[in-house]
Amino acid sequence: MKTYTYKESINKLDTLLKRDEGENQEIRRRVLEIIDTVKSQGDAALINYTEKFDGCRLDTLRVTDAEIQEAFDLVGREMAAVIEEAAGNIRAFHEKQKEETWMYNPGPGITLGQHITPLERVGLYVPGGKAAYPSTVLMDSIPALVAGVDSLVMVTPPGKDGKINPNILAAAKIAGVHEIYKAGGAQAVAALAYGTESIAPVNKIVGPGNIYVATAKKEVFGKVAIDMIAGPSEVLILADGTANPVYAAADLLSQAEHDEMAMPILVTTDADFGEKVITEVYRQIEADLGRKEIARKSVDNYGFVFVAENLEQAFELSNAIAPEHMEILLPEPMQYLERVRNAGAIFLGSYTPEPLGDYFAGPNHTLPTSGTAKFSSPLGVYDFMKKSSILSYSEDALEKVYTKIAAFARSEGLDAHAKSVERRYENK
Fold first, then answer.
1. Fewer C-beta within 10 Å: the chain N or C terminus?
2. Which PROSITE patterns does this chain map to (predicted)?
3. Cα 62 to Cα 67, 155, 208, 214, 249, distances in angstroms
4. What is the pLDDT at residue 23?
5. Any idea which residues carry the catalytic annotation?
6. Is residue 210 annotated as involved in ligand binding?
């Protein structure tokens, strides 16, 4: 892990955090080729790409009810109960985000408002293989279902045996996903956007994936909506010398084990505490970490300790970084909440570790990364809703203002706009 002072880092964070890296044009070229092939060849392209990239030849793309039930049985009652409890927590939290159609009357004969409707069909991408995360299924599907989406379609790559990870299928069954297809990578994103013989196109695509998936989502944006372009996972811990370095190190490693580019960051007002955390991070990697090689590369290349002179500087650094996950390990952490301007999720106190949010508490773990928390929010029910404006004027109400509207229209050179309101009162 690399250590910097506030003065050394505050004006060059994007450079230090390697957030200015350019787009990989070769990956984009290959993704565009895959998209075009899926558009022209449909299911055949998906089957061929699955054989090429996933090592299995499929007869059909859609997962059957029998396969889902088999997976549910393999997961077992104990794990299924855990998934069901987590799903209940996630559903309860997201129910609070629901919006309703509203209207008001600002004057006689006038009704204005907003009509809220769910998206009709949504595609959910779920990574497979080593990155098989049933938690992602719950986090990305339940808000859509709470919103009232009619058709929720999941795509996920199969293993070499042609089967889907049973935990993923069990989570999909518990959440209530409507359709599941064996397809992954950029080709699955293309299928969701443009449709094939088996997969009808969707209105929006959500869910994480590798660089090919992220690039494909970027390329189909406009044809469909997308949730976000997710970068490597991040956690920022803000702490002073009163925090427990063992806890802090463990929480940093909970992100470092995701992949080699995950970014574990400590911002502290105590340089000695920073050194203790670094020592503890490497001790825990060697002592009992299963994915130690991944974690070591993460902390070596993307791990940072920023030492601030005071909490004001510490929060300035944190807000400039705008982390995906932020833990505040300070005494009475709630009192500092208003200082946080930019963070995907905020974890308050020593007994609110980041994995609590990943799996169980209820708030969504699909969060803005790479500094996009400066302008983005966690995935939520609102991502699966559309808003339409409502306007209704009576004849008398429009008569009171139509000359003003006509004057405004003519100031913009739009005579037909003016005549649209004037013709209604020509003979009065």
1. C
2. HISOL_DEHYDROGENASE
3. 10, 9, 21, 23, 43
4. 67
5. 324-325
6. yes
What are the pLDDT digits (tens) for 273-296?
999 999 999 999 999 888 999 999
Is residue 258 a known part of a binding site? Answer: yes
Domain-located, residue 381: no
182-210 core/surface letters (b: 16 or more CB in 10 A; e: else): bbbbbbbbbbbbbebebbeebbbbbbbbb
Alpha helices in 42-115 (DSSP H): 43-54, 65-75, 77-95
Residue 5 lies in a domain: no
Q: Same domain for 151 and 279?
A: no
- Alpha carbon 135 to its chain's center: 12
Is 97 a known ligand-binding residue?
A: no
Strand order in the sheet with 385-393: 102-107, 110-118, 385-393
C-alpha triplet 362, 364, 367: angle, nearest 5°: 155
CA distance 210 to 224: 19
Could you report the per-residue pLDDT of 153-206, keeping only the tens digit for each? 999 999 999 999 999 999 999 999 999 999 999 999 999 999 999 999 999 999
Q: What is the CA radius of gyration of the chain?
A: 25
Which residues, other chains included, contact 271 with Cβ-Cβ below 8 Å and sequence gap of 6+? 307
Partners of 315 in the β-ladder: none
Tell me: is residue 48 an annotated ligand-binding position: no
Q: Which domain holds residue 322?
A: 231-374
User: Does residue 185 share a domain with residue 57?
Assistant: yes
Among 238, 242, 261, residue whose Cα is nearest residue 251: 238
Amino acid at site 20 = D
Instruction: Please check whether residue 184 is in contact with residue 157, taking contact to mean a CB–CB distance below 8 angstroms.
Output: yes
Measured between its terminal Cα atoms, the distance across the chain in Å is 79
Identify whether 10 is part of a domain.
Answer: no
125 labeled part of a ligand binding site: yes
How many structural domains is the chain composed of? 3
Tokens of 240: 């002073």
d(CA 210, CA 413): 50
